[in-house]
Amino acid sequence: MKDHRPGLIADIEDGNTRIFYYVEPGLNGKKRVAAEVWDFLRQETIHRATYSADAALALAAGIQNELKESA
Question: Where are the beta strands (DSSP E) in the chain?
C-alpha cells in the first residue's frame, strides 16, 4: 500500500498497522504535523492526532537526544 498523501514525511509499518506522519496546513496557514494509524485488519484509520510545528520539533529533538545517549 503506497500512500501518496501530500506532505508525507514518514510511513512506518509494524505488522498489523501502518503509521503515517505528514505535514498539513493548519489554521491561519500555520503548519501542523499529523499522525494517522491505519489498521490492516479493520481496513480503517483507528487513531489520528495533529501537533503544532513547535510540539513536533520538540518531540523530534527529544527523540534525537535519547537516541544519542543510548548509542
Answer: 8-13, 17-25, 31-39, 44-52
Contact 18, 40 (CB under 8 A): yes
User: What is the DSSP-derived secondary structure letter of residue 14?
Assistant: -
1-42 per-position pLDDT tens digit? 456 678 899 999 999 999 999 999 988 889 999 999 999 999
Distance from C-alpha of 32 to C-alpha of 23, rounded to nearest angstrom: 6
- Reported as half-sphere exposure (CB side, CA atoms, 13 A), residue 40 has a value of 9
Question: How many Cα atoms occupy the beta-carbon half-sphere of 4 within 13 Å?
Answer: 0
